[in-house]
């Protein structure tokens, strides 16, 4: 699993490619209209045919690559990976069908972008970057969606270079609706400057901690730490030197997977170097 920061970069690149793919298909549509008009006028237009074929191929390739990047980007935000990454897959189908039937591809594409909008809205809230939400809305409108994709990419680029908004609740890693008390922290954890985090967790399930984030800081790590039912004394190694304010308590977000679903656990730890 890639980090959310890498996921934002993947999504930014995805929507740049989406915009380029849509421009290519728009050129293809214009070329098809020119060919049809030339044919009705009894004039052959080989140039229009060449533009039509090349733009279809270009749009297809760019759209598929963009869809793969979007899928990977949304996967880096574990608790949005339902509809959002599904929308990326739908968008790939839309781009594949567009050279065969532009109308069918357009309809399926709108469905895909509507599914991705939900994930983009959560990312917009998470990074307190409203540009992403505005672009996501425009991306649902044919032709205007080209501008929408560019605005989304600009917003994601801004989000990549800004800290997470402290005043916002964390909707991306928000507590899921299913059984939020399956894993609870006992006491207060400790963060060490050598990158270790010590926590005591009371768990009603067995699984693995797969990611750890110290909120409102740049510290994030993908890990694989087993936990069992009962009380677990967990030592997490972030594999980096940690520099925080001594004697300050920081919120910790853990993602725990049991192989079938993911659970977000909120904990707290004090920095005691």
Question: What would your notes on this structure say?
Answer:
- The protein is of the alpha+beta class and 273 residues long.
- It has 2 domains: 4-160; 183-271, Immunoglobulin-like (Sandwich), CATH 2.60.40.
- Helices cover 49% and strands 21% of the residues.
- Strands 1, 2, 3, 4, 5, 6, 7 and 8 form an 8-stranded mixed beta sheet that branches.
- Helix 1 runs antiparallel to helix 2 (46-75), helix 2 runs antiparallel to helix 3 and helix 3 (83-97) packs antiparallel against helix 4 (102-126).
- It is elongated and about 80 Å long.
- The chain starts with a helix and ends with a strand.
Describe the secondary-structure layout.
Blueprint: H1 4-40, H2 46-75, H3 83-97, H4 102-126, H5 130-138, H6 144-160, E1 183-185, E2 189-191, E3 196-203, E4 207-214, E5 220-227, E6 230-237, E7 249-257, E8 262-271
Parallel strand pairs: 2-8
Antiparallel strand pairs: 1-3, 2-3, 3-6, 4-5, 4-7, 7-8
